[in-house]
């Protein structure tokens, strides 16, 4: 049943990629939707350079969110939106410099903020990418942003991202961002696109989200602590692999807490698939952060639904190892991940970060 999961790959650090990535915004497209035409600014929190979306979409109305929802802590991109009261389908066209030979992270953000002042129904609409159904956006709270991210290999030099009206409510968007990735990684079968399910920074010391410029590709890492775990960390530099993970993400890890965890030799977590036909791609990121003595070992195996996914594995001290799905299984309703120490290991398992993606189906599921 889980046959596909047996095909995994491991990428450890390599000498070629030790050099710290250039953190510059070459090839980034950062649109703050709803700001005046031709205007631009550098965001003081991230250092990202945003421009107006005028010229990337035809039509659309600029709006400010309601003053009730404006605050100093709100991301600047959420202060305005572009809305599409006319037409059923309105499309943005992004033309990345690398064309269709590249692979891109594309993120769309929606912060409603009651921009239309008291419309009594929350917006509900579909998002499409290059004619394929991506996801349905259903606003459920005016002050909770929705962010959708996809890793996409375009078939054309230009990428169309469309907002499609479903009912009487009006589609809108707050920000649209594109980042070129190294196209040797995050590669789904047949180059199909993958939508982000979750991206977690396990064991954060600051409890802050991490993104650009700590992450050269502006992936957004959410701090997360599994129940019954302890944080371990290092202040040393960690060698990167091709995934170029942020140092602050890799320098902390979780281990089972022997005091509170009923099974102190294992780390476990699970999720339910949205639809059993969905295919999930897992990316586990590991680095040893503790200098082990000669008598100590940390070795573990990863199981998914009781099938060996990868192992045994013993992450090298201060260098990144990524283990990821090459050929996903499907037909699974609940995924249980269990990372347990091998019998000979003297130390419990650790984990620094994880990313889980879902293959884009491209059509709307029957409801
Ligand atoms: C930015 O990064 C790109 C690719 O990594 C590199 O080719 C370019 O020279 C860098 N530009 C600057 C100004 O550092
Ligand atoms: C940013 O705005 C300034 C001032 O309006 C303008 O001179 C400049 O050309 C703009 N830059 C870009 C890249 O849009
Ligand atoms: C949005 O707010 C800015 C200033 O905060 C104002 O100049 C602009 O006219 C407002 N736009 C709309 C559509 O109300
Ligand atoms: C996947 O994309 C890469 C880069 O765009 C391309 O070289 C390769 O031929 C594609 N593979 C398939 C199976 O489409
Ligand atoms: C790619 O571009 C061609 C020519 O512009 C167009 O006919 C085709 O529909 C596009 N394909 C997608 C998937 O957008
Ligand atoms: C919307 O979200 C905010 C912030 O998380 C919360 O305080 C508020 O209670 C929520 N409103 C509703 C109607 O759930
Ligand atoms: C872990 O982080 C804390 C806070 O930054 C620091 O004081 C401590 O030295 C770190 N531990 C190790 C082993 O580096
Ligand atoms: C992508 O990663 C490979 C393998 O680490 C590396 O050789 C190559 O230079 C990278 N490409 C870019 C554009 O950074
Ligand atoms: C680890 O877990 C798997 C799956 O539950 C189990 O088959 C295996 O015996 C466990 N190994 C150890 C050393 O506990
Ligand atoms: C799952 O997807 C399949 C294929 O689109 C569909 O027939 C089925 O109804 C979906 N199941 C659920 C629970 O949405």
Q: Residue ranges: pLDDT <50 for 5 or more in a row?
A: 1-7, 13-21
End-to-end Cα distance? 26 Å
What is the fold named in CATH at topology level of the largest domain? Jelly Rolls
Assess the beta-strand content as a share of residues.
35-45%
Q: What would the average pLDDT be, to the nearest integer?
A: 91
Q: Which CATH class of the largest domain?
A: Mainly Beta
Estimated radius of gyration:
21 Å
User: What is the CATH superfamily label of the largest domain?
Assistant: Galactose-binding lectin
The topology string of helices and strands comes to EEEEEEEEEEEEEEEEEHEEEEEEEE
What's the number of domains?
2
Could you characterize the architecture of this molecule?
This protein has 367 residues and is mainly beta. It folds into two domains: 6-19 and 197-359, Galactose-binding lectin (Jelly Rolls); 29-181, Sandwich (Jelly Rolls), CATH 2.60.120.260. Helix content is 1%, strand content 38%. It has one helix and 25 strands. It has one helix spanning 247-250; strands spanning 8-11, 29-32, 40-42, 49-51, 61-64, 80-83, 89-94, 103-110, 124-129, 132-138, 146-152, 159-165, 172-173, 175-181, 194-202, 222-224, 229-233, 252-256, 266-272, 280-286, 300-304, 307-313, 321-325, 334-341, 353-359. Strands 1, 2, 8, 11, 14, 15, 16, 20, 23 and 25 form a ten-stranded mixed β-sheet that branches. A four-stranded antiparallel β-sheet has the order 7-12-9-10, with no helix packed on it. A hairpin with a 2-residue loop joins strand 9 and strand 10 (132-138). The longest helix has 4 residues, at 247-250. It is globular. 37% of the residues are buried. The structure holds 2-acetamido-2-deoxy-beta-D-glucopyranose (10 copies). One 2-acetamido-2-deoxy-beta-D-glucopyranose binds at residues 101, 153, 183, 190-191.
């Amino acid at each position: 049943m889980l046959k596909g999961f047996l095909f995994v790959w491991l990428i450890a650090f390599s000498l070629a990629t030790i050099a710290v990535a250039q953190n510059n915004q070459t090839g980034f497209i950062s649109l703050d939707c709803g700001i005046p035409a031709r205007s631009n600014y550098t965001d003081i929190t991230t250092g990202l350079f945003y421009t107006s979306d005028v010229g990337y979409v035809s039509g659309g109305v600029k709006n400010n969110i309601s003053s009730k929802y404006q605050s100093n802590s709100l991301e600047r991109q959420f202060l305005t939106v572009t809305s599409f009261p006319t037409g059923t389908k309105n499309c943005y066209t992004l033309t990345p410099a690398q064309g269709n030979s590249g692979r891109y992270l594309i993120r769309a953000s929606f912060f409603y903020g009651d921009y239309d002042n008291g419309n009594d129904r929350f917006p509900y609409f579909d998002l499409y990418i290059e004619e394929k159904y991506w996801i349905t956006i259903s606003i459920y709270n005016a002050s909770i942003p929705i962010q959708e991210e996809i890793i996409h290999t375009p078939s054309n030099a230009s990428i169309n991202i469309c907002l499609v009206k479903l009912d009487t409510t009006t589609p809108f968007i707050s920000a649209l961002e594109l980042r070129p990735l190294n196209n040797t990684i995050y590669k789904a079968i047949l180059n199909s696109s993958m939508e982000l399910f979750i991206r977690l920074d396990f064991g954060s010391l600051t409890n802050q989200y991490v993104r650009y410029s700590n992450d050269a590709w502006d992936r957004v890492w959410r701090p997360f602590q599994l129940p019954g775990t302890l944080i371990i960390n290092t202040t040393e530099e960690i060698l990167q692999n091709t995934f170029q993970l942020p140092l602050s993400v890799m320098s902390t890890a979780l281990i089972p807490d022997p005091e509170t965890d009923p099974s102190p030799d294992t780390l476990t977590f699970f999720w339910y698939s949205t639809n059993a036909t969905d295919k999930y791609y897992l990316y586990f990121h590991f680095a040893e952060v503790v200098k082990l003595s000669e008598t100590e070992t940390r070795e573990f195996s990863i199981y998914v639904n009781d099938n060996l996914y990868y192992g045994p594995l013993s992450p090298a001290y201060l260098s990144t190892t990524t283990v990821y799905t090459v050929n996903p299984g499907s037909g699974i309703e609940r995924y249980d991940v269990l990372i347990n120490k091998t019998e000979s290991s003297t130390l419990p398992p650790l984990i620094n970060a994880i990313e889980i993606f879902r293959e884009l189906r491209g059509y709307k599921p029957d409801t």
